[in-house]
Structure to design on (644 residues):
C-alpha cells in the first residue's frame, strides 16, 4: 500500500460516511436506486455522474467506491470489485452500439462518446477483429456523435442516448452481441470498484442489498423512465430484464479477464486482474508485483497503471528508474540522437486576469509595469531568430482583457508575411479566454487563428490536471477538462501540441500520476501530442504560494516516471531552463530525447529568479558531451540537420 493510499484510508475512517459515486444511466438504476434512501438517511453520500467523471472521483480520492467502467479501473490499477454486482450483457446490450449509414467495416472515421473508456476500448478491439484496422477516432459529445453520422463516419453511442436512436440507422454493431460472438463469453461494462480497504464488509452488504431491491423494481424503473423520455415502456422493461445482466459470477469474471488480456496485448490498457473486496478480508494480502518486475515490464514497453506508476515514483530507486526510462528512450529512439529547436519564447504581454498564486510574471490591467509588445519590438526579436537560423516562435502571454481576436489575427498574418517562422502560439487558457471575449467556441477560435497562421499549440497552463490542485493555486484558471478539451479540438483539426506539467505546489504524487494518465488517455484518442515536458515550481520572489515537493532528484524521478507511463508520446524534453544545463544533461539518461529550445530569452520562469540561457553551439556541445548525436528539429520533430 502506497503512502497516498494509507493516507486516504486513514482519512476515510476519520471522515465516517461512505462516499459513493455511480453512473447516471438507466441501466445503473437497479443498482443505485436503493442507495438513494441510504443517502437520505445519512448513512452514505451518493453522487451520480457520467462514467468518466465517476472514474475520476475514485482516481482523485473523491469517492470511496464507484459504479464505474472496468477499463478505467484497469487504468487506475489496484482496485477491488464488489462480488456479485455488475452492469453487463450476454448478447445484445442495446445501449453500447456503433451506428452508421453504411456497413461498419467500411467506416473511415468513428465519433466516440468519451464518457466510458470501456466502450471505446471494446470498440477498438472488436473493430480490429472485424476489419483488421480501426477507423480514425474523433471524441465528441453524444449529441454531436449522432448528428455527425454520415457517409464514412459512424458513431459509438453508449447509455441512454443509444436507446434513443434505436431503429434510426441501417447499420448497427451491438458491442455486447459482437463480444459474445468473438469470445463466447459475457461482457462486463461496469462494476462497483474501490481502493484496497476503502469499503467495509457491512458497506459492501449495503451495495448488494440495494441491488436486490433494485432488481425487484425494474418494471417501475422502466416505466418511470418511459414517462420522462417518451420511449416505449415495454422496450425499456425488456432492456432492463433481458439485455442487461447484473450478476458477476464465474462466467462474467472470465469475460472480464479475457477483455483485460486482449486490451493489454493491444496496448490499450495496463495488464489487470479481477480481484474482489472480500479477497483481502481475513487473509494475508497478496503481495503486489516487485518493483523490479514493474521496471522490467516498463522497459519492455508494457503499459503500467496509475497505481503502478505511483509505486515507482514513491518507492523505486533513482538509479533503477533512470535505467528503465533510458531503456524506453532507446527503444523509441535507437539512433542515439537528441534533438533541439532554434526558436524564441516571446511573451507578448504580461497583463493577466487570472492572478495565479505561483506566477511572478503577470501584472493586472492598469499596472505601471504592464506591457503589450509593439510591432517594432517584436520585429527586432523575430529578425534575431531568423538571423540565427531559427524556425519558430513560441508566443504566449497573459489573459489581456482588451486584446480581441482581430488583434491576434492581424499579428499572426504580419508575422507570417514578414518573417515566415512557424507559429507555436497561445496556450489552451489563452484560447479559452479569447473564446469568452468573442462568444466563440474553441473550434471557432482555433479555425480563425489557424487561418491567420497558427501552426501548433503549446502545452502551457496545464500545471496539474487535477481540479482540487488547480482551485488552490489558480482558482480563476480553466478546469482540467477545459484544458484537455482545447487540445482535443486542436488535434482533431490536425494541429499538434506539446503536453506539460508544473508540479511542486500543493500536488501529491497521486496528483502527478493522475495528470500523466489524463495526458495518456487523450493521446490514445488523438495522437496529437508531440512531446512532454515537466518542471518543478520555481518558488522565488513575486510568487504567492509556498513550494511543495521539489529539487533535482525529484525532477529526475518525475521525468523518468513520465517517460515510463507515457508510452504513446514519442518525445520527452529535458527542462534545463529550470534545472540548469548540467541537470539537463543528466536528464538525457532519465528518458529525455530532446533538449528543448535555444533560449534567446524567457520571461515567465526568469521572473521568479531562474535565468539559465544557452545558444545552439553550447547546446550541441552539451548533447555530445552526454554521449549523443545532436540534430536540430522543427515542432513536429522532423530533423532539419544531419545528426552529428
Amino acid at each position: 500500500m502506497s503512502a497516498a493510499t494509507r493516507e486516504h484510508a486513514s482519512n476515510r475512517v476519520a471522515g465516517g460516511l461512505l462516499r459513493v459515486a455511480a453512473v447516471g444511466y438507466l441501466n445503473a438504476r437497479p443498482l443505485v436506486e436503493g442507495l438513494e434512501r441510504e443517502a437520505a438517511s445519512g448513512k452514505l453520500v451518493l453522487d451520480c455522474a457520467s462514467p468518466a467523471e465517476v472514474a475520476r472521483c475514485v482516481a482523485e480520492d473523491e469517492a470511496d467506491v464507484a459504479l464505474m467502467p472496468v477499463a478505467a479501473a484497469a487504468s487506475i490499477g489496484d482496485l477491488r470489485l464488489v462480488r456479485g454486482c455488475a452492469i453487463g450483457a450476454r448478447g445484445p446490450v442495446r445501449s453500447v452500439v456503433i451506428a452508421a449509414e453504411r456497413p461498419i467495416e467500411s467506416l473511415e472515421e468513428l465519433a466516440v462518446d468519451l464518457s466510458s473508456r470501456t466502450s471505446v476500448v471494446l470498440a477498438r478491439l472488436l473493430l480490429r477483429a472485424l476489419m483488421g484496422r480501426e477507423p480514425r477516432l474523433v471524441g465528441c459529445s453524444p449529441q454531436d456523435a449522432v448528428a455527425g453520422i454520415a457517409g464514412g463516419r459512424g458513431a459509438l453511442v453508449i447509455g441512454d442516448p443509444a436507446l434513443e436512436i434505436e431503429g434510426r440507422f441501417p447499420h448497427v454493431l451491438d458491442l455486447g452481441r459482437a463480444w459474445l460472438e468473438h469470445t463466447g463469453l459475457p461482457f462486463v461494462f461496469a462494476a462497483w470498484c474501490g481502493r484496497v480497504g476503502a469499503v467495509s464488509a457491512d458497506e459492501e452488504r449495503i451495495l448488494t442489498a440495494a441491488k436486490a431491491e433494485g432488481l425487484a423494481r425494474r418494471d417501475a424503473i422502466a416505466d418511470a423512465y418511459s414517462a420522462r423520455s417518451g420511449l416505449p415502456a415495454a422496450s425499456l422493461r425488456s432492456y432492463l430484464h433481458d439485455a442487461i445482466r447484473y450478476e458477476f459470477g464465474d462466467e462474467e469474471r472470465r469475460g472480464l479477464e479475457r477483455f483485460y488480456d486482449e486490451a493489454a496485448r493491444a496496448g490499450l490498457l495496463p495488464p489487470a486482474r479481477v480481484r474482489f473486496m472480500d479477497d483481502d478480508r481475513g487473509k494475508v494480502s497478496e503481495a503486489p508485483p516487485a518493483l523490479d518486475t514493474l521496471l522490467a515490464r516498463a522497459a519492455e514497453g508494457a503499459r503500467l497503471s496509475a497505481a503502478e506508476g505511483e509505486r515507482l515514483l514513491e518507492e523505486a530507486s533513482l538509479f533503477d528508474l533512470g535505467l528503465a526510462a533510458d531503456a524506453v528512450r532507446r527503444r523509441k529512439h535507437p539512433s542515439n540522437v537528441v534533438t533541439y529547436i532554434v526558436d524564441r519564447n516571446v511573451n507578448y504581454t504580461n497583463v493577466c486576469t487570472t492572478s495565479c498564486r505561483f506566477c511572478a510574471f503577470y501584472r493586472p490591467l492598469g499596472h505601471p509595469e504592464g506591457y503589450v509588445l509593439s510591432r517594432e519590438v517584436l520585429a527586432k526579436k523575430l529578425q534575431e531568430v531568423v538571423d540565427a537560423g531559427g524556425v519558430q516562435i513560441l508566443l504566449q502571454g497573459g489573459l489581456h482583457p482588451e486584446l480581441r481576436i482581430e488583434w491576434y489575427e492581424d499579428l499572426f498574418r504580419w508575422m507570417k508575411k514578414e518573417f515566415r517562422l512557424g507559429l507555436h502560439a497561445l496556450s489552451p487558457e489563452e484560447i479559452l479566454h479569447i473564446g469568452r471575449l468573442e462568444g466563440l467556441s474553441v473550434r471557432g477560435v482555433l479555425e480563425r487563428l489557424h487561418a491567420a497562421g497558427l501552426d501548433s499549440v503549446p502545452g502551457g497552463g496545464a500545471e496539474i490536471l487535477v481540479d482540487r490542485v488547480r482551485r488552490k493555486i489558480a482558482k480563476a484558471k480553466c478546469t482540467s477538462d477545459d484544458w484537455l478539451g482545447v487540445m482535443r479540438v486542436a488535434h482533431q483539426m490536425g494541429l499538434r501540441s506539446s503536453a506539460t506539467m508544473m508540479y511542486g505546489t500543493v500536488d501529491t504524487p497521486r496528483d502527478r500520476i493522475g495528470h500523466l494518465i489524463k495526458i495518456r488517455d487523450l493521446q490514445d484518442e488523438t495522437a496529437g501530442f508531440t512531446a512532454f515536458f515537466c518542471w518543478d515550481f520555481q518558488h522565488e520572489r513575486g510568487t504567492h504560494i509556498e513550494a511543495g515537493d521539489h529539487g533535482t532528484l525529484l525532477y529526475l524521478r518525475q521525468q523518468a516516471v513520465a517517460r515510463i507511463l507515457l508510452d504513446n508520446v514519442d518525445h520527452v524534453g529535458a527542462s534545463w531552463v529550470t534545472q540548469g544545463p548540467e541537470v539537463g544533461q543528466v536528464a538525457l539518461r532519465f528518458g529525455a530525447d530532446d533538449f528543448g529550445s535555444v533560449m534567446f530569452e524567457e520571461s515567465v520562469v526568469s521572473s521568479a529568479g531562474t535565468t539559465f540561457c544557452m545558444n545552439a553551439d553550447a547546446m550541441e556541445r552539451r548533447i555530445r558531451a552526454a554521449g549523443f548525436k545532436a540534430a536540430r528539429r522543427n515542432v513536429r520533430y522532423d530533423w532539419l540537420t544531419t545528426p552529428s
